[in-house]
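pinging the channel bc i need a second pair of eyes. not urgent but kinda urgent?? the chain im working w is below, pasted from the shared doc
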Amino acid sequence: MVPRRSDLRSTQWIACLSALLSSVSLIGSEAAEPAVPRFFEMAAQAGLHHIFSAGETFEVGGGVTAFDCDADMDMDLFLAGGVGPAALYINTTVPDDAIRFAEAGDKLALPDGAAANVSGGYALDFDNDGDDDLFVLRFGVNLLLENDGECNFSIANDKVGIPNADENSVAFAASWIADRPDPVLFVGNHRTPESNNSNNEDLNVCAASYSLRFVEVDEPTARRMELITPSYCPLSYLLVDWSGRGQFDLRTANDISIVEGGSSEQLFKVGEALEPFPQSEAWNPPAASGAAITSRDIDGDGRPEIVIAGEGDLRFYVMPEDGDQPAFFEQAEELGVTRLAAPAQVHLVQNWHVEFADFNNDTLSDLFIVRGRRTDQTVTNALDMDVLLLGSDDGKFLNRSRESGLSTNNFGRGAAIADFDRDGCQDIVVVNRDSPVTLFRNLHCDDRDSPGWLDVELAQDGFNTHAIGASVILRAGERAQTQARTIGGGHAGAASGPLHFGLGNNQEAVLRVRWPDGSITEPIVLPANRHAIIKRSDQTIIVNMGEQ
């Protein structure tokens, strides 16, 4: 199917969304119990043998990136190592067999010492050749690693002018602005390097964070750096289309336990320059630390809900339907994502990573939260166990952590969610502090009668080859889902791959794509249980279908 492309404005995208939702019932009067997916921990069996060694330096960080570095449709892994070496694992899984990874750290080709002091990393195609490269976050000089398409990496800092200075980087986001061929990088730094391992309170200050717009070094200006100010030790950045109109702005989660008087969350308007949105009566974030951000439109109104994970309970924000200015209303208690610990123990809980997914493919968004105390890391208890919240028909979330097998006794940090064996169900890899990484295979698709799914991968010619900043609205039966293609979020890492949609019992879905420039496809009908690549080439849309 090759539908024509329509050059429509953001207001027409909202109209398009409304049309798709016109016959959709998003919330039922009686909530049915969601099917609980079961997970099996198999990191050692899969060949994953890696430890994030925090030592006394890495109070924060510990991310993992899931991405396809050799274009074989299998998701590979880059894992932070803390004071130990970072690692690259290539996915060698064969169809209908167990998940397998092969260690390939030599492909990173890092000089002595550069593989250590890594807090995390994110995938992006900075050189627009179609292959995902890596931005490596370090407590030291950050690294931009260029991929040759076969998972062989080389340092490309000099090509784009990455600062040759020690940093304490944990937060990261990237996007392509307007018609420029080069991405804008947003780098968030925690404490100043001088404050590492120091008990001097005067040194416990936040380092400068910045955006970086770069061009080739043979141009008059190699880069333009702009400080992101004020900066309150950010631990997560995410570009969020809060209005639903295609304008992605920078949302931050900050570690205000480090700096008094700071703001727990910020929002910056992204354009030719960064401009902070002022807080208002409609958006007045609480004074609570944040370690990770995720967002997704779970109610079908075209505006994403935003979840912040940090100390204590989650913070769950919704936007009013008619909001033209940022107005985020906290709805965690109404949606059932609070009470993850007894009131007297909330201050002991540290949520590090949070991410939306659909683990049972029932068309409803679920939430996965990685937990682990920041201090007193001697004996784990229930406060350190990871949490699975399943979406239900009434719009609320139900805690099914123990039933799923995800409540493990580890001090977790970052995570990545992806379908590592291409069976149609999303698996999870979790980085743990000073203990082996865990890999949870989702067993839900082992049942031949399990619900359907669809993976949607976006591509386009020219620059921004993976269509960062695009959104996909999909309708399966009576439910609509919207997901955006972004780089950032989570804690020091995230998955970079196809958008995964659960289809329930529906055998097909209809979707439209809003590309980064605002143009929108005509409706595209796709069958269930496929990996679809939707590519914009010149003036046509090409849909390539694969079967997993």
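so The CA atoms of residues 88 and 442 lie 22 Å apart. and Confidence is low (pLDDT under 50) at residues 1-11, 21-29. — does that match what u expected or am i reading it wrong
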